[in-house]
């Protein structure tokens, strides 16, 4: 699984879909900040990630470092709306992600 930031690929090794989504969220937030975006709409197709980011606690310690990074990045924006969408509603982006991995 790879994660892209500023045009380069980073190998995150073998991991779960939840951890891969956290890496993608973190990279996307960093990219938006670098671009000077201050109001952001985030749609994720992994509901667990949305729920964990929006929760006030961290029940799974394995996710803590990336989850805390994401939370710290989110507060740097003027406004962030985050919501879960079903993968079927996200076919276009999912297709690009799969194509980018090949």
SSE layout and pairing:
Elements: E1 2-5, E2 8-11, H1 17-34, E3 39-44, H2 47-54, H3 64-74, E4 79-84, H4 91-100
Parallel strand pairs: 3-4
Antiparallel strand pairs: 1-2
Helix pairs in contact: 1-3
Description:
- The protein has a single domain, classed as Ribonuclease H-like superfamily/Ribonuclease H (Nucleotidyltransferase, domain 5, 2-Layer Sandwich), CATH 3.30.420.10.
- The chain contains 4 helices and 4 strands.
- The protein is 46% helix and 20% strand.
- The strands form 2 sheets. The protein has a two-stranded antiparallel ribbon. A two-stranded parallel sheet has the order 3-4.
- It has helices at 17-34, 47-54, 64-74, 91-100, and strands spanning 2-5, 8-11, 39-44, 79-84.
- It has 102 residues and is an alpha+beta fold.
- Mean pLDDT is 81; it is low at 1-6.
- GO terms for molecular function: nucleic acid binding; RNA-DNA hybrid ribonuclease activity.
Task: Write a concise synopsis of the structure shown.
With 102 residues, this protein is of the alpha+beta class.
Strand neighbour order, sheet with most strands: 1-2
Which class best fits the helix and strand makeup? Answer: alpha+beta
Number of E strands:
4
Number of domains: 1
Average pLDDT: 81
CATH architecture: 2-Layer Sandwich
Shape: globular
First-residue to last-residue Cα separation: 10 Å
Q: What are the segments in which pLDDT stays under 50 over at least 5 consecutive residues?
A: 1-6
Main beta sheet strand tally, sense and closure? 2 strands, antiparallel
CATH overall fold name:
Nucleotidyltransferase, domain 5
As a whole number of angstroms, the C-alpha radius of gyration is 13 Å
Protein name: RNase H type-1 domain-containing protein
Pfam family, one: RVT_3
Domain RNase H type-1: 13-99
GO molecular function: nucleic acid binding; RNA-DNA hybrid ribonuclease activity
């Amino acid at each position: 699984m790879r994660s892209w930031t500023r045009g380069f690929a980073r190998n995150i090794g073998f991991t779960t879909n939840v951890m891969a989504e956290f890496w993608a969220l973190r990279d996307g937030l960093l990219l938006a900040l670098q671009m000077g975006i201050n109001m952001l709409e985030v749609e994720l197709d992994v509901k667990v990630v949305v729920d964990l980011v929006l929760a006030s606690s961290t029940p799974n310690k394995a996710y803590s470092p990336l989850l805390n990074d994401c939370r710290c990045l989110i507060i740097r924006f003027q406004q962030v709306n985050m919501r879960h969408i079903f993968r079927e509603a996200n076919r276009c982006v999912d297709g690009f992600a799969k194509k980018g991995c090949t």
